[in-house]
From TrEMBL:
This is Ketimine reductase mu-crystallin. Homodimer. Binds the thyroid hormone triiodothyronine (T3); T3 binding inhibits enzymatic activity. It comes from the Eukaryota. One of its GO terms (cellular component) is cytoplasm. Belongs to the ornithine cyclodeaminase/mu-crystallin family. GO terms for molecular function: hormone binding; pyrroline-2-carboxylate reductase activity; thiomorpholine-carboxylate dehydrogenase activity. Its EC number is 1.5.1.1, 1.5.1.25. It catalyses: L-pipecolate + NADP(+) = Delta(1)-piperideine-2-carboxylate + NADPH + H(+); (3R)-1,4-thiomorpholine-3-carboxylate + NADP(+) = 3,4-dehydrothiomorpholine-3-carboxylate + NADPH + 2 H(+); (S)-cystathionine ketimine + NADH + 2 H(+) = (3R,5S)-2,3,5,6,7-pentahydro-1,4-thiazepine-3,5-dicarboxylate + NAD(+); (3R)-1,4-thiomorpholine-3-carboxylate + NAD(+) = 3,4-dehydrothiomorpholine-3-carboxylate + NADH + 2 H(+).
Amino acid sequence: MSSEQPLFMSDETVKSLLKWETLIPAVEGAMRDLSKKDVLQPPRLILPIPSKNGALLAMPAFSKSESALGCKVVTSFQNNQEKGLPSIMGTILFMDSETGKLKVIMEGTEITAWRTAAASVVATKHLHVGEKKILAILGAGTQGRIHALAMHHYFQFQEVRIWNRTESRAKALCNELGSWATHYSNKERCVRDADVIVTATYSPTPIVRLSWLKPGAHINAIGFGVKHHNELEDEIYKSESTVVWVDHMEAAQKELAELINNGVRMRGEVGQAMTLSHAQTQSSNITVFHSLGMAVEDVVAAKVVFEAHKEKLQAATRPSN
Ligand SMILES: NC(=O)C1=CN([C@@H]2O[C@H](COP(=O)(O)OP(=O)(O)OC[C@H]3O[C@@H](n4cnc5c(N)ncnc54)[C@H](OP(=O)(O)O)[C@@H]3O)[C@@H](O)[C@H]2O)C=CC1
Ligand SMILES: O=C(O)C1=NCCCC1
């Protein structure tokens, strides 16, 4: 019997091993595999904890092509900012996919941030047709920050605008990012003329209006406060020119049930859009990627990190000549 103990990887170690160059293709592959039904991923269990303004989510997945098996447990506690803690904190259990034996216990707070932004990059790549000159980000928390970094890295937008409810945080983030990011004090001005928009807040009421959107704009809607669809006004969903995509249809039936019951049609999964040519999306359509967040993204990201860790160890023990 193997007595090998599971490895523990802290968020600090995980962060040092995460690279957009390896993560984005891995998340793209996971989204494609899910739509090809090469992934086992049941709808996640969500335990709301209303008295704490929080929730706990249990998210297992198995990727056949990556031979990756794992489960993330993640919490979302909206009042954590005042306690100096991240709102979203996760832990990933990464197993041997042949035996189920636990290989790594990985802190999953960094992975959750990075893989969510990577999924938005993949969705933007496959759903947005036109030029990518102006990016507007609403929310300057963990997700707002990591989306700025991922989008800037992948698409090299000419302008990156950031609005936040608490203006000083948008200013501080732009100062940290450098001259390529500009803070906006008015969200309408931030969104108008933008080619791509990211909403990454806990806002319980709409922060984007249809009349602000230019034809062909693409929105990555990330926020999940009380619901997963508070950030966009109803008119956006009702508009005939809007096409809504999700990461996982089965999860959307559950988590976006209210929208679906109100007649909003989900066009399909981003993984399905990858197999369509862009010509099938009219360039004047407004596209929305409703990012629910998928366990398979976490599991393949954990594999990328574990592989990078093993390579680093090997390199350190290789004799130099
Ligand atoms: N789809 C997915 O896979 C994932 C989704 N998420 C979701 O992304 C969102 C952001 O998460 P994260 O960045 O980690 O959280 P943070 O706590 O780091 O940031 C929260 C952001 O929401 C803003 N905010 C809070 N309440 C309101 C409000 N009433 N109106 C407007 N803005 C508000 C905050 O503004 P201020 O600075 O003024 O407080 C801040 O910009 C959350 O909804 C979270 O659930 C997170 C991870 C994965
Ligand atoms: O997919 C995730 O991880 C999360 N999704 C919604 C908010 C909490 C974390």
